[in-house]
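Bug: token stream looks shifted between consecutive jobs. Job 1:
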Amino acid sequence: GENARILIEQRGVLALIGYASATLSLPALPFVEKGKVAFVGPFTGAEPMRSFRRNVYNIRASYADELEKIVDFYTTTGMKKFSVIHYDDAVGKENLAAVELALTKRGLKPSSIGTLKRNQTDLGAAVSDVVKAAPDVVIATTLYKTTGDFSSQFASTSFVGAGALASELGEQGMGVVVAQVVPPYSRASIPIVREYQAAIEKSLGKKDYSFTSLESYIGAKVLVEAIRRAGANPTREGLLKTLDSMQNFNVGGYLVDFTPSNHNGSKFVELTAISKAGRFAY
């Protein structure tokens, strides 16, 4: 919150972009709203950031969209026993509710639920709760380190920074499915991905691609285009109006759709699986 205040009140920024989570985003919002600045592309799908706010523009799908996609995929393949791992906090409980809603629509309910504190290292009880239910699918709504530790322990008895999760699990990650909110960073046939790859190679001197940096790049493209459309001398209020007008904006194959009453710009979700080699397969 304090950094946002300094940037808005003292440095006079036009917009803020890419805050890393709801935990970091929410304290910044009072200053964002007071200063009438655009808050673009936060790295979170949490519900508190999805309800309409005049200054917030989400580039990615919500956690509920991701969880709906996961449940839909597995129920379509005939699986019916789902266990859920979630944090015992507001966002964690919202994620659990989203899974329960997706299951209820299909006449199902969780077979078991594992609840964890953030930064909890002893996962034994949660693993035990899940194992007893013998689920077909375990849906982990936790961060990559917790998900990796849980998956390793779960595998030995019988999901996110996606790249970090794949590294954390190694060969034990084979078959773990991760919901992604941007296209595969290796799919150069998509114009925005091809442009992103060239930018990464030029900036870093190597092909160090990731879903996180691709999401950042897409968010930056949207903001830069909005600033361009706002004219030679953009103002904070003018930028907000311009973002509101960006309906069905095609960011090189990734569609972002804002209106004056809808600032959730995308519902894109794609599922990826971790291969035996610890890489993503599509």
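Job 2, same session, no restart:
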Amino acid sequence: MEVKWELPHLGSYKLNTVSVKQSTGPGGIGGLIRIHLGHRIIGFSEHTPHTNPVRAKLLAIRRGLQIAVNHSLIPIEINFDSIETIHMLTNRNINMLYDNIVVECRCLMLKLKITKVTQVFREQNRAVDKLAKEGTKVAVFDEPNILLVPPMYARRKVETDILGTMYTRLTNNIPSIFQGRDVTQLNRNGHHAAVDAPIHYPS
């Protein structure tokens, strides 16, 4: 199956985030905010302390949302590759283990007027993955490395995203069973079609 990074809608920004977490030890998070032509507005790379993979993903999303709020980047779309995290952010029920950070993310999303989040494959997040991996090497806790210019180690991936480079994602030969917004779907051309999850904010 062929997939690629999808441009945001005209007049909109897009935030992509990724976390890299080893089975033991600290990890890294990264994110990119880009405009509709794919050109980079701002990015970040950050070291994370000992934590679990779910919290690491939430930390990446929170940091990206904080940066978007601080720079008034509205309207903005958000994409990441974790279905579990999408459920936490879009459903009314919250896992109590992550209550504080999920509520904080929702408040930031409300400020940014975000009405949905979209799940993408990790292959569509290659540029951001580079930033997250770099974060594993920088042991400065709670202080992101804000990037206004694409660093050399990620520049090529950013450029290939702008060009619409396709990547091959290996899948099983048997048909997949799609359940609502829990997984991505394919369009008629066999390409990836992201599934959008509407957000249920507390009334």
